[in-house]
Amino acid sequence: QVQLVESGGGLVQAGGSLRLSCAASGTMFRFYGMGWHRQAPGKQRELVAAITSGGNTNYADSVKGRFTISRDNAKNTVYLQMNGLVPEDTAVYYCTTRSIWGQGTQVTVSS
Question: 27-36 pLDDT, tens per residue?
Answer without folding.
Answer: 899 999 999 9
